[in-house]
Request: fold
Amino acid sequence: MDKHQFTIVDTLPNCDICAIGSQPFRPLAIQPQQSEAHYDASTNIFDRYESHGVAHDGGSSQLVGRSKWAYMCEAHYADHGVGLGLGVGQKLILRDSDEHKAIQAEKAKQPKPDVESLLRAAVMGDTVETSDGCIVEPDGKCPHGLLSPLRELGLI
Reply:
């Protein structure tokens, strides 16, 4: 899986689509079933409802250009997800899960970025990866307190 297709999280949010039910215009008395979201991605479901003149409350979905973003459970992502990657979406992987450990093991086999590559990332405005797999700005720090490799080396 490409590093832009996933992100490591400490907890999984609820699925936005489950939160509004299968029909965004359902009566408020009907309580939706909640599922954990495993994706934060662009979806086509809200466009379908809006094309029929129905507004949605959106939960935590955001308007990004002409597409809608939502946290989605496995089932809703399979039905309504647009894809994974930069500008499309990411799979949410729990820290310390077996999947995260497998990613860490695979990453440990790969060569570490050299100083020249790290400096190039800083100049080009790219992101870099902390030792625990978080993606940060070259001068950044991840939510878990780890510094970017450039900061660790004292280059920034």
The radius of gyration is 19 Å.
